[in-house]
């Protein structure tokens, strides 16, 4: 009985053992299969990313338009006309609404309201950033749309404007004034008149102010020079007196 029980336990213990994994007969083939699966997965991922990138590029291309200079000038002329009719440049809402509807017949076929709005904003920013750009048709039209009255220039300036006539100056009428208003001239005049016996009262008569002013300056310079010569003479006289005194003291 004990032997039968021991035999059952031995069978149960043997049945509970997990079978050992059987080694792969070709490990290199198994590794190749794993690598191939990983490569296929990477290729699928790259295809998805490429598809997304292509869709984004197509979307970006559809929202852009290469504007030529003539197309930009035409757009600015329409903006000038809109401002003239409405008193102001179109707002963003108007640019994609009434303004776009009014000029879409003259726009390139691929220009959408969004593309038009982007172009209008670009032109406005460029003008505001460089308001003093060289005088070109593009700049002049932009100034008419977004400039102030002080910086809006004439869109059709006259290349050969007539020179503004210069008025001929009217000769100034001499203003009479009394000789006594010029001290140096008045003093010299009194001396000259006294030397020749001319009435001193004549020195107080009215004279031409311009001529008197010119003579006043010259007489002032002459008087200053006389003063300098007088001082030099006094210095020479002082030296002469000193020489005489020294000689007398020695004798």
From TrEMBL:
<feature type="compositionally biased region" description="Pro residues">
    <location>
        <begin position="156"/>
        <end position="174"/>
    </location>
</feature>
<protein>
    <submittedName>
        <fullName>Formin-like protein 3 isoform X1</fullName>
    </submittedName>
</protein>
<dbReference type="Pfam" id="PF04504">
    <property type="entry name" value="GeBP-like_DBD"/>
</dbReference>
<comment type="similarity">
    <text>Belongs to the GeBP family.</text>
</comment>
<feature type="domain" description="Glabrous enhancer-binding protein-like DBD">
    <location>
        <begin position="64"/>
        <end position="130"/>
    </location>
</feature>
<dbReference type="GO" id="GO:0006355">
    <property type="term" value="P:regulation of DNA-templated transcription"/>
</dbReference>
<dbReference type="InterPro" id="IPR053932">
    <property type="entry name" value="GeBP-like_DBD"/>
</dbReference>
<dbReference type="InterPro" id="IPR007592">
    <property type="entry name" value="GEBP"/>
</dbReference>
<feature type="region of interest" description="Disordered">
    <location>
        <begin position="1"/>
        <end position="47"/>
    </location>
</feature>
<dbReference type="GO" id="GO:0005634">
    <property type="term" value="C:nucleus"/>
</dbReference>
<feature type="region of interest" description="Disordered">
    <location>
        <begin position="146"/>
        <end position="176"/>
    </location>
</feature>
<feature type="compositionally biased region" description="Basic residues">
    <location>
        <begin position="8"/>
        <end position="20"/>
    </location>
</feature>
């Amino acid at each position: 009985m004990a032997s039968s029980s021991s035999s059952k336990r031995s069978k149960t213990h043997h049945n509970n053992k997990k079978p050992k994994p059987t080694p792969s007969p070709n490990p290199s083939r198994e590794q190749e299969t794993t690598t191939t699966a990983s490569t296929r997965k990477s290729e699928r991922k790259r295809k998805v990313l490429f598809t997304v990138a292509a869709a984004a590029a197509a979307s970006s291309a559809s929202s852009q338009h290469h504007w030529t200079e003539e197309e930009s000038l035409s757009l600015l002329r329409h903006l000038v006309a809109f401002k003239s009719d409405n008193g102001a440049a179109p707002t963003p809402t108007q640019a994609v609404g009434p303004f776009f509807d009014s000029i879409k017949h003259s726009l390139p076929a691929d220009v959408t309201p969004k593309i038009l709005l982007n172009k209008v904003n670009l032109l406005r920013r460029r003008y505001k950033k460089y308001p003093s750009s060289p005088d070109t048709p593009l700049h002049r039209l932009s100034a008419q749309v977004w400039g102030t009255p002080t910086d809006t220039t004439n869109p059709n300036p006259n290349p050969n404007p007539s020179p503004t006539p210069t008025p001929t100056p009217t000769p100034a009428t001499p203003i009479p004034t009394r000789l006594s208003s010029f001290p140096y001239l008045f003093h010299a005049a009194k001396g000259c008149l006294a030397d020749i016996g001319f009435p001193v009262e004549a020195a107080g008569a009215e004279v031409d102010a311009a001529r008197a002013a010119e003579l006043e300056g010259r007489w002032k310079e002459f008087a200053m020079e006389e003063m300098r010569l007088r001082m030099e003479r006094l210095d020479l006289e002082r030296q002469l007196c000193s020489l005489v005194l020294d000689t007398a003291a020695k004798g």
